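Q: I'm writing a short explainer about Glycyl-tRNA synthetase for a general audience and would like to include a description of its predicted shape. Could you first generate the structure from this sequence?
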Amino acid sequence: MKTKLSITAIFAILLIFSAFKGNAQVHVGVYHGGILSHIGVGTDPEKKIFGEARVLAGGVINPFLGVEALGHYNFRQTDWYNLHGGLMLGYTEITDVQAGIPLGLSLKPITTHRQFSLLLEGGPIYANHFSFRALIGVRYTLSKEY
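A: Of course. Here's the predicted structure. Afterward I'll give you a sentence or two in plain language.
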């Protein structure tokens, strides 16, 4: 119980910090991979380099929680998609420390509403052993300039 409280406190601090970042654009996202769901908040994904903090939201099947910090680099950016990769470090109640190299494709399918994107992400991850993780989700960029 103490660990769940600590993880929740860390995520709340990250949310508060991102709210006070002047006029920077922020994105929020919900991602799903197998029995794990992630909720994320991060910097503007249209910049060349952007970051994101995620919390692994436990549920009935997987009651464990965790947090992740990701740094991404946009290799290719167009009006329709962004191709990005980066590094991920995290902590979960199951595996303790984990690290990975996520590769992602953000599709922006609505011409008049580029803030909305579909995220396909996958890559190798180390969490007690090497494996591959894949996520699918939606992301929305909160901004005034689009």
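A: For your explainer, you could say: The radius of gyration is 15 Å.
Q: Perfect, that's easy to follow.
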